[in-house]
Amino acid sequence: MAVAKYLQKFNIKINELWFVKEEDQGINDCDIFMYAGMANPPEGYGKNILVRHGKTLVNDLRMSEDELLKEVNGNTRAKIKKAEKEELCIEFYDSGFIKQNPYILDDFIEYYNAFVDSTKGSAGLEKKNMVIYKAYLDAEILAITCAKYKGERIIYHAYLMNGNYVRLNASASVFRNFDEEQQKINNLANCLLHWRDMMAFKQLGYERYDWGGYSDLESLRGINQFKRGFGGTLADIYAYSIPHTILGSAVVLLLRIREQIQERREHEA
What we know:
By secondary structure, this protein is of the alpha+beta class. Helices cover 39% and strands 28% of the residues.
């Protein structure tokens, strides 16, 4: 069991566990304990708990490579084949390798945050926090993959995993500064990188590849169509935050109130 531990604003201590529910005294030395990537809703924690429910798209990596490829639609398969003919290099870094080469995490954070800047707020993305990613790295639940074109990195993916289940955490491409031809290369590279990522995790014995969420928002239609191109099935997913101290209880209560206000505004809009 790997728990990511980090401090947030005002020295609020967070412990974060992905994909599995385990009760252990050693993981409760915090203000707030966060379960993320859970298949089922929480039970038995009382009312003061922050619960987020959403949908995600999941591929079953227990299928053979041929079976997985058959799930990929024709357009996406064609892009993968075309990408294999380009001057693309795919690289995979697990937590152990990143620890030995810390520049990889630095470069990913810098690249992703530049990507967020390039969207100018249109995608509703937030910049990544190095403190949290170092906690993921220390817990050895982080993997980063990269596609390079003629030696230059053009796509980054970040994943969180637990040995059985892997979830896409972030994807970045600073495409808005490129011309139309480069954007086409980026699109091909992204298809190839996702496919190679799936195959790499399959070879490592992972059973489920989670696309990091699936939304019905109109603004995300293009992203969802891209994900759907690889097949997979829709699944429920939950994240919940449980307070363990008076400070944690106050923070969770404030977060619940804030989310209720946001939901009310969205409903009235």
